Amino acid sequence: MHQLAQDRRALLRYLLQDLQVRGRDVLLPVGCSDFDEWLLDALSVERLLKQLKSGAPTLDLINACISTSTSAAARKDYLSTPPRGTTTGGEDGGIVDFRTLISGDATPSAVAAAADAAAAAEQDSHLPQLRLKSLQVGLQEYQLKELAYAIFLSCASAQASPGLLADLRASLELNETRAAELQRITTLVGQHGITSLASLEMHIRLLQIVRPSAFDSFRNFVRWRDTVTSVIWLVLSQAVRDTWVAAPAEGSGGSSGGEASARMLLARLKGGLRRLDVRVADDYDDAEYGEAAEAVFGAADQLAQRCQTGWSFPWGLRARLAELLLRGIFDTLDEGQYNDHRQELLGILQGTVWRQLQITPDVHNAVFAWVHFRQFAVSQELLLLEVARQAIQSVRTAGASPRLEGSGSPLLVTKEEYDSQFPAEVMACVSQSVCEVLGNYHASVDDPRVMKGLIGVLDAAEAAGGRRDQLPQLLDGCIAASVEAAFDASLEQLSANVSAEEDLIMLLAASCAELFKREAATYSPLLAAHQPQARVVAAATLHEVYGAKMLPWLIGVNGLTKSALEAIRASMALEELLLEECRDSEAAPDPWGTMERLSPLLYTWAQGQISMLGGWMDRILSAEDWTRVSKQRAHGSRSVVETIKIVTETLEALFDMKLAIPAGVVRCLTEGVDLAMQKYCEFVRQQVGSPDAIIPPRPPLTRYKREIAVQAEQQAAAAASGVTPAGQLSKMKSKVHEALNINWLPPLGTTEEERRVMAFHYDGLVVRLNSVQHLMDSLGGLERMVVDRWDDGRPRSAKARDGKSAYDWIAGMFDGARAAAARTRDHLARFIAVRLVFGELRDTIYERLYRFHVQVSRLEMVLQEVDRLLGDICSHVHDALPPKLARAVCSALVSAVQSVLLDGGPFRLFTPQDVDMLEADMAQMRAMFYADGDGIGLEEVDAVCRPLSDVVDLMQLDTGLIIQNLKQANATLGRFHKSPRGTPAALDPDVLLRILCHRADHAASKYLKKDYKIPKKMPGALSSSVSDVASKAGGVFRRGK
């Protein structure tokens, strides 16, 4: 592939990525994950710009694609680009006269002349042009031709025969009237001692000498004067800009002083030229014209003296004049033959004219070779190619000067630079022009001898320029451009006769196969001497251009119809032919990946399946009542059975197409299936919601008061035994007791959220849990089925080529569903555990466990209920679920027991002596969940129970030590600041404070009253009637404050 095509892709990719960074939505064709090369080649810059200018928020790249190959245009652009250090461009399109140059105004005569010049340029546009920046002298072709003839007459009119002058006049396309006027001018100036017009000074002298009387009409005079003034202004203005030399007197003023002098002199020159610009005979005054000419000469003389170039013509102008004069050796009627005065003209040019124009022999040889090649393009005379090749071999060249590759003025190259550089530049132009012809040799070169001659000229030109090693690269570009041009011609012809796109693709594939066979049989053998890989280049180019046409069609196919399949098969046959030619080449193109290019259809199908799968899931879940499909253990719901069946059938339908499905399409569908299964799991989890509403809130903190604790215990004992206090005072004391010891634990079911949690029965929860587990167990089988069937459909060549890396996409196929199922399973297990512990056993734990004294109500009664309820639930779940449930219940029970120890209300009172019994209870709980190895592992049990164990360990410390730890913790973390997560219990102020609140110790109560102002009874809203009851009792309880 040519470098320019790669550069085009890089530029388009950068621009599109920049648009994305700036917030513009860039819509890729379905199946494209990035700016692929085939997509960039198919983009039409014109269509892309049209979308950008429309201001649409989304840039749709499929609408910016074109059917034909844009890489052909890229290569053609390359071949029309100047080779190595040269710059494209001919003369300016419009007429260049004085008024256009200095003011931009256009006169009617100027407009007419511009039209004539444009027509002439259009007529010669198909011919080779010396596209050198140094030759862009700013003059029209007719002006250059008149100037060349005038210089020739001034230098050699006395030597030239009338026949030679007639031939030269015909070559320069000058009519007899114009030629006679120029002859009169040279005769006139000769009378004034001017023997040559090959310098700028002599042309300014012309303005002083020549008057309208020398011309047949005033209009012809204006035309001649415009040419002279254009030359004067162009050369001097650019000389001032690039080679101005400041005078010594201006040195102290810096560059500004020199610039001021230059601007002043240019203004004088412009003023003088403006005065000369008389376009109507009635406005002409000879005396005024003479004064203006003198003013022009005076200003020009000062400018020339201050410029390094002086009065010299720029080299670009001299070279163009030499080219025009050398064309005069050819017959104007039989353009492939020399005229009768060829030798005479060459003798005069080399003996006289070149000396005046300072044209060296090397420059002459370079221009001589060029005009012969150009004449071949005009006449197709094969002999001229051989003459051009021999002339090129006699040219001595040097590398191009770096100066010309910069931004300096091309008109002001010095003689020394141009002597060494110009021949090399001409050879580069010869190479480029040959490449332009070879860039379409399938259409323009039928004769093998012409093909061989063109290659010979190109070889000689590259060798003369010291670039012969780059000849294979040039031929690569020519082969690619010609193949693409032939492809475009075939496409155009077929498009005119075929309407169906798939038929066009099929016929175009057959045409490309014939084109390649013709290339291999006719042209490649001629190219092989200089480029052995000619057939490979042609094959790679055909592969590229056909792919650029076929791939966009393939993306737009709406269905795999019979005609579409035929087109695809023809395309694959062509690719096999082309890739076989390129098999052992390093430049072998990447396969089209036809199956991957079918991705739009396959992705569309997959997206449709995913959409339908979502609808099926909605219907399945809406009809689910969470009853078992059978009475057997571990059976899930109907919904999970139907879900697994549907996703299995969806995946199998993809592989039933019997195609080598691209991994991306498979991944797309599996991701959709994965999301559907995640949706199922999330539905189950969200349907049951959170169970935390039934977890009791923390009660307000109270401190130990012996009298209140004793009285509350007595009252509880009396109530338990059925004894009722007698008398009014007893009734009053009972009311006061109830107010002081109001139950902080709210009854279960007082809120809507609590009723919602308790409404879920264990049977429904177990069915949900089994369903999620069944879904998890099915994921492994689904993954194996997908991998096996995808691998079975892959061709052997792909397996050998891709290796193990082809299976990278398999990793994490259903990880989303697996993670969602695990989250839902753990959530359901926790929901069951919370409901069991904080719902079923709420009263047992919060009303009875460790109330007043540890020994009165131990943990064993709770563990018996847990064992019974958990065993009943585990008998109906999947075999993998009992450990999960046991862990969840253990965690919930640990949380509940810890809540009793730290937030159990005012009548949970403990002493260090209670720790032995608490540890015994904990050991019993560990043993129950370990279940002799049939339950949770010992390490896991210990990890779950660790928060509770840490609290019990702290409870055995002396009150003073706990108070000291609390003070240190407050000093470290800040009082009343919440402890960071993971803070050890021994350093947690919240835990230490609650242990003190439940410590049956006077010192602890005193510390809490003094430092924390913690009351001895429930405050505020929880005992709203306390103050009323106390006042009626006559202050009986005020002593206890």
Automatic annotation (TrEMBL):
Pfam families: TPR_PATROL1 (PF25761)
PROSITE patterns with a match to the protein in the record: MHD2
Domain MHD2: 856-966
The protein's name in its UniProt record: MHD2 domain-containing protein
Transmembrane segments: none
Domain of life: Eukaryota
InterPro entries: Munc13_dom-2, PATROL1_C, unc-13_homologue
Signal peptide start and end residues: none
